[in-house]
């Protein structure tokens, strides 16, 4: 009987321990479930909060980026406008220089520049020029055919050049054609603007032409193949040669 009671007591203890274990397990599970739920909710809330902040920051950056893009477009447009204005002003300046050079050259179209003509204290250049044209060039001209004549500053230590302006272009051409009869190293040249002289020097220095000369307000250059090209102040020599040769072919 005692054994039976003892056995029941042991069994009861085992049942109680099992129930206790189950109870504890259930409590732990509930606690873990509650903890996990709370933790998950907190994490989700934190993620939503962080995501929201990041989204706000991204939206702000996108707005800033769009504003920056618009400002860049505006600046690009301003730069483009300025470049167009600079290009237009440059073209206008070039045309103004070319026109000014042409007008200057045209105004001295009838001028002759005389080099190495001896200076004397009481020289009367008009009469001396008329006599020289008659005797050495065999051209019959009158004093009133010479509209202007005077010396201009020259290189130090050299005879000052003489500028002569004759009545018309035909008379100038006649004189220039006969200049081979000049004596004593006296030389006649066209009166050429500084810009045209610089253009001629640039053409000669390129060493691509057989001859370079000036005639009737224009600068000419002759290629080795005999082709003649008229050059303007701002012409690109290489490009003009390419265009000329391309047309020639």
The CA-CA distance between the termini, in Å, is 137 Å
Number of helices: 5
**Uncertain stretches:** none
Q: What's the main sheet like?
A: 4 strands, antiparallel
Overall number of domains = 3
How many individual β-strands? 7
Shape category: rod-shaped
* Average pLDDT taken over every residue: 87
What pattern of helices and strands is seen along the backbone? HEHEEHEHEEEH
Secondary structure category: alpha+beta
Largest sheet, order of strands side by side? 2-3-1-4
Assign a percent range to the helix content.
55-70%
What is the C-alpha radius of gyration, as a whole number of Å?
51 Å
Share of β-strand residues: 5-15%
Keywords: Coiled coil
Provide a brief overview of the structure:
This protein has 249 residues and is of the alpha+beta class. It is built from five helices and seven strands.
Which properties best describe this structure?
249 residues; alpha+beta; Alpha-Beta Plaits; 3 domains; four-stranded antiparallel sheet; three-stranded antiparallel sheet; 5 helices; rod-shaped; coiled coil
Structure description:
- By secondary structure, the protein is of the alpha+beta class.
- The termini are far apart.
- The strands form two sheets. It has a four-stranded antiparallel beta sheet with strand order 2-3-1-4.
- Helix content is 60%, strand content 14%.
- The protein is rod-shaped and about 155 Å long.
- The chain has three domains: 84 residues; 82 residues, RRM (RNA recognition motif) domain (Alpha-Beta Plaits, 2-Layer Sandwich); 58 residues.
């Amino acid at each position: 009987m005692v054994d039976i009671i003892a056995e029941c007591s042991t069994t009861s203890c085992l049942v109680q321990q099992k129930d206790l274990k189950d109870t504890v397990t259930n409590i732990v599970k509930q606690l873990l479930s509650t903890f996990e739920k709370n933790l998950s909710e907190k994490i989700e809330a934190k993620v939503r909060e962080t995501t929201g902040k990041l989204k706000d920051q991204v939206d702000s950056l996108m707005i800033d980026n769009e504003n920056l893009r618009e400002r860049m477009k505006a600046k690009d447009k301003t730069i483009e406008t300025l470049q167009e204005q600079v290009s237009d002003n440059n073209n206008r300046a070039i045309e103004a220089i070319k026109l000014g050079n042409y007008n200057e050259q045209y105004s001295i179209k009838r001028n002759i520049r005389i080099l190495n003509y001896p200076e004397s204290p009481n020289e009367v250049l008009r009469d001396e020029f008329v006599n020289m044209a008659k005797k050495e060039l065999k051209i019959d001209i009158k004093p009133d055919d010479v509209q202007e004549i005077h010396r201009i500053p020259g290189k130090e230590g050299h005879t000052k050049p003489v500028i002569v302006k004759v009545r018309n272009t035909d008379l100038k051409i006649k004189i220039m054609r006969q200049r081979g009869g000049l004596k004593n190293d006296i030389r006649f040249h066209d009166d050429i603007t500084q810009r045209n002289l610089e253009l001629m020097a640039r053409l000669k220095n390129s060493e691509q032409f057989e001859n370079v000369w000036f005639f009737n307000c224009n600068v000419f250059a002759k290629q080795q193949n005999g082709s003649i090209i008229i050059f303007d102040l701002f012409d690109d020599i290489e490009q003009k040669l390419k265009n000329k040769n391309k047309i020639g072919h």
